What does this fold into?
Amino acid sequence: MLGVPQGWALAHSGHENEGVPLMLKSLAELRRSRTRFWLPLHLGLLGQAQYHAGQQEEATATLRRMARTIERRKDRVYLNSALPATRLLHKLLGHHGAEMMRQR
It folds into this structure.
């Protein structure tokens, strides 16, 4: 689980080629172990790192997955404006991101 924030930190300190793959690997390990605790937060961090690395399409896909996960679980706490991915969600998903923010 620590690979996600570690990868985020690497990506935001100029090591995108190490950080994003570490995050993807960590999320895959969590998925295999059926650990879904904080999944929306982790997806938001991954989307942010991908966007920071210039991977806009991947970031958009990741944030869509985050949005679907939040909707399915009704975990609107992950849409709090204090969380890093919330503004990016709104920027990349446009209307859908704004709609989710209003529903919280």
